[in-house]
Amino acid sequence: MSDPLSSDPSPQRRRPSGPHRSALRPLFMVLAVLFLIEAWLWEKTAPMVAWVARHIPFEALKHAIARWARRLPPYGALVLFVVPLILIEPINILALWFYAHKEFVLGSLCFLVAKLVGVGLMAFLFEACRAQLRSIRWFARLCDGVLAINAWAHRQVEPYKVQLKEAFAAWTRGRGNGFWRRVMDIRRRAFRS
Question: What share of the chain is helix, strand, coil (3-state, %, to 5)?
Answer without folding.
Answer: 85, 0, 15
